[in-house]
Amino acid sequence: MESRAPGDDHATPPSHLLAEAHRLLPGVIAVRRAIHRTPETGIHLPQTQKTVLRALAGLGLTVSVGEGLSSVVAVLEGAAPGRTVLLRADMDALPQQEDTGLEFASQREGVMHACGHDTHTAMLVGAARLLAARRQRLAGRVVFMFQPGEEFGGGAQLMLEEGVLGDAEEAPAVDGAFALHIAARYEAGTVHLRPGPQFAAADVLRITVRGRSGHAAAPHKVLDPVPVACEIVQALQTMMTRTVSVFDPAVLTITSVSAGSTSNVVPETAVLSGTYRTFTDTSRQVVRDGIMRVAHGVASAHGAVADVELIDGYPAVHNDPRFTAHVRRAAATVVGPARVHELPHPTMGGEDFSYVLRRVPGAMAFLGACPPDRSPATAPDNHSNHVVYEESAMAVGTAVHAAVAEAFLSGPPDAGL
Ligand SMILES: [Zn+2]
Ligand SMILES: [Zn+2]
Q1: Does the annotation count 389 as an active-site position?
Q2: CB crowding 229-239: b at 16 or more within 10 Å, else e
Q3: Between 85 and which of 263, 306, 397, 408 could a Cys-Cys bridge form, CB atoms 3.0 to 4.6 Å apart?
Q4: What are the CA-CA distances from residue 170 to residues 159, 166, 360, 401 (Å)?
Q5: Could you report the per-residue pLDDT of 344-372, keeping only the tens digit for each?
Q6: Is the Cα dihedral 403, 408, 414, 416 positive or negative?
Q7: 231 is known as an active-site residue
Q8: CATH code 3.30.70.360 region(s) in the chain
Q9: Quick one: what percent of the chain has pLDDT higher than 70?
C-alpha cells in the first residue's frame, strides 16, 4: 500500500517516482561507471562534461556550458509558469590511487572518484530524465547544475560568477536549491540532513617561523625556530579551547610540520600548516585573530619572527530550516518517513554548495549508500581509496532529487519556503 507524508498532497504517491527511478537505474549506473573509469580533477573536466552532455541529449532541455570551467547548466521548462528550483551535482574526482578492485575502477593512475561525485552526476542525469518525462506536472523551471571543482578550485563560486543563478546579484532567478552527497557511513537508501549548519567553513593556515641557522652544538649562537614552532602548535590548541565558545564548534588541526634536513644544523625556518573549521562568522574571526596573536606572540617571546598566511576556504553550509522541512517531506514520499533521519550534529567537512546557499534558500542532504555486505560503522567512506557505494541507492537519490523539485514546483506558492 502506498502512503503519503502528511501535508504533501501534491506529491506523487511514493512508489511512482521511485519505481520510475528504478527503471532509469541501468542508464544511471552506466553514466556513473563511465565517469568512474575516467575520473578528472579540478575545474577542467572535458571528458566528464562530454559524458553529461551526451546523457542529456534529446530531453528537450536548454543546455549551456561554462566558459572558464567545464560546467553544464541544463534548464527544464515546466508546462506552466512558476518558480525555479536548482538541483546541483558536483563532478570532480580526487588525486588518489583507487584500490577498490571494482571492475569499473579508475583507469587513470592516481585519480579516483573517492568522494562519490560520479554518483552525484549520474543521479542528476537520472533526475533530469525523470523530470523531463513529467514536464506536464511542473509549474516553473528546474535548473540542473553540473559543477566541476568542488574538491579544489571553487567551482560553485565560478558558476555563480558565470550566472547560474541569473545575473542579478541581489535577486537570484532561483527560488530554492538542493544537493545530495552520497555517504557509505549510512544504510543504503536512507536520507540524512539537519536544519542550520551542516558543513563547516574550511580555512587553511600556514605559519613560517624565522630564526637564524647555525651549528646544532651551539644553539646559543643561533635562533632555533624548531622549539618555537612546537610551542605555537601547543598554544594554538590552548587558544582554541579558551577563546571559542563551546556552543559554537570549531576545530584547528596542524597537519604538517617541516623544518631542517639533517642532525647537526639548526634550520633557518620551521613551517606549520593545517586547517581550521568553524560554523559562524564570529568564531571564524575569533580563530583568525587567535592564530595571528599566538603565532606572532610566541615567536616574539623567543626573539623570532612568524609570517602568518590565512587562506579562506569555502564558507559554512547552512540549511534553510523551511526548505529542510520540505526536503524531509519530499524524501519521505520516496523512502517513507522512517528512512529520513535528522543528523544529530553538523560535520566539520567543507562543501562549496555553501556559495549557492548563501544566495538562495535551500538544503543539502546525505544519501546513505553502504553496500549490504559491509557495516555503515566501519565501511570505508568518502576520500578513502577503498570506498565502494551501493549503486542501487542511486535510484533513491534520483527520485529524491525529482521529488524535491516536483513538490517545490507543483505545491502551494510557499511550499519549501
Ligand atoms: Zn570530497
Ligand atoms: Zn564531496
Answers
A1: no
A2: bbbbbebbeeb
A3: 408
A4: 16, 10, 10, 26
A5: 999 999 999 999 999 999 999 999 999 99
A6: positive
A7: no
A8: 201-314
A9: 94
- Distance separating alpha carbons of residues 150 and 84, to the nearest angstrom: 23
End-to-end, the C-alpha distance of the chain in Å comes to: 30
**84 CA from centroid of ligand 1 (Å):** 28
Phi first, then psi: what are they for 348, rounded to 5°? -85, 0
DSSP string, 132-176: HTTGGG-EEEEEEEEE--SSSS-HHHHHHHTTTT-S-SSS-S-SE
**14-200+316-410, what's its fold?**
Aminopeptidase (3.40.630)
pLDDT in tens, 365-385: 999 999 999 999 999 999 999
- For the CA atoms of 96, 97, 98, 101, the dihedral, rounded to the nearest 10 degrees, stands at -170
- Catalytic hit among 40, 98, 150, 391: 391
Question: How does pLDDT run across 140-177, given as a tens digit for each residue?
Answer: 999 999 999 999 999 999 999 999 998 766 667 999 99
Q: Cell for 302?
A: 623567543
Res. 311 pLDDT band, cuts 50 70 90: very high
Grid cell 606549520 is found at 272
Q: Which amino acid is at 417?
A: L
Q: Which ligand is nearest to the CA of 89?
A: 2
CA angle 46, 50, 55 (to 5 degrees): 150
Q: Which fold has domain 201-314?
A: Alpha-Beta Plaits (3.30.70)
Q: Can you tell me the distance from the alpha carbon of 204 to that of 253, in angstroms, rounded to the nearest whole number?
A: 10
> What is the CA(203)–ligand 1 centre distance, in A?
15
Q: Boundaries of CATH 3.40.630.10 in the chain? A: 14-200+316-410
CB 168 within 8 A of CB 366: no
Overall size of the chain counted in residues? 417
Distance 94 CA to ligand 2 centre (A): 9
In contact, 206 and 256? CB cutoff 8 Å = no
Q: Categorize the per-residue pLDDT at 403 as very low, low, confident or very high, splitting at 50, 70 and 90.
A: very high
Provide the CB-side half-sphere exposure for 375 (13 A, CA). 2
How far, in Å, is the centroid of ligand 1 from the Cα of 133?
Answer: 32
CB under 5 Å of ion ligand 2: residues: 115
Distance 90 CA to ligand 2 centre (A): 7
Q: Among 97, 99, 121, 101, which residue's Cα sits nearest to residue 110?
A: 97
